[in-house]
Every structure is written in C-alpha cells, then in structure tokens.
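Title: Prediction job returns without error message
Component: structure pipeline
Severity: low
Priority: P3
Assignee: unassigned

Description:
Job completed but the reporter wants confirmation the result is attached to the right record. Sequence as submitted:
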Amino acid sequence: MKFPILVILILALCSATAFACPCSDVTVPNPPPATSYEEGLKFSKTSQYKKQFASATSSAKKFCTDYIKEHPGETNLAIVSDIDETIVDNREQFRLHPERNWELFDQWVNESKAPVLKPTYEFLTWARKNGFAIFLITGRPESDRKPTIINLVKDNVSYDALYLRPHHGGPPAEEFKSAVRKDIETMGFKIIVNIGDQFSDLAGGYSLDCEKLPNKMYFIK
C-alpha cells in the first residue's frame, strides 16, 4: 500500500527527534506522552542524542555552504535560532529541580550561567563569520532580556538581534516565532536556516531549511 507524500511526511515529523526540511513542511504534532526530566536527561547523555544533535548542526552548515555556492554574491542572508536547549544548556537546572517548576527556571535564567551547546555554538559562529546575520528568537519573556544577554555575552555568543515574548503566557510559540520570522523577511533578509529543539520553533514557514534538534525533556506547543 502506498501512502500519500503528505502522510509520510507527517508520520516522519511526529516520530523523529532530528530532521531537516523546508519550514513550510513542518507541523507541530500532538504532545508525546509525558516524560520526566530524569528520562529526558538520561537520553541526552546517550550516543544517539549526540549523533542526532551533531547531524542537525552539520546539515545546517552544509545547507548554508551549498546555498552560498549556488548563489554567489547574494547578500542579506540570515540564520534564525532558538536559545534554550539549542544554544544554551539548561540540564544543570533540570538535574537540580526535576519537578518542572518554571518559577525555579526563571531563577536559573537570572543567574545567567547556562553553558553553550558546542555544536550549535560552532555552527552559528561559522555562519556569522561567513556573512550570515544571526537572529535569536526565544520563548523567554521580555523580563528575561537582561540576564539572557549577560549569559550570551559570557558564552561569547554573537548575534544581530534578540527577540523575546512580550510576557509569560504570551502567544503560542509557533504563532510568535513565525511572526518574527516574517518580520525579519520584511526587513529584507532571506532566512536560509532555522534551527531549534521544538517543532514550534520551526513551524509556520519563512525559512528555506529547518533543523530539529533532539529534546526529550519537555515539549512546547
């Protein structure tokens, strides 16, 4: 029995923890069965997690490299990236507080001490050196702007703009992030790669390529 291409794509997206495809093809699946932070942390220490993470960032770099070769002289190219579990690593917080308390997570954010996730950091560093503008879009609220910037400065993460939600409980992640990407394109940039650990980081279009990083600790719709 042959399945329609769209059905195959949806099945693949819902079952995969890392993939690459045009953002226009990404949809946010139903939330998976709830898992504990402990289970997600355990997975993040496996070779499978590391392989998937490295594969996604390598795919992002290859897509950018191929695009530059195929479009010599094109300017105003951009990368969009999520922050949490994409650039910075919050596993220390989840190890200390496995009860999913977002107030405690806000306290952690205010400490500005999350380390970088090296594969994504190296990809973004490479991209910026090769002429791509770097736009960071996070689900963190605007009240977290200062500690977020301090953390990124400490980690030597270079970027060109940082977008945060207006407040806690703002618009859904997909709605907020796709609207920002639309604004970035309206400014005259072409988004070549959009990378993040949540389907909601990627869904909604406005990017040529999407790279989904593995994360089994939590799911954000």
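Comment from assignee: result matches the submitted record. Strands lie at 19-21, 77-81, 133-141, 161-165, 190-196, 209-212.
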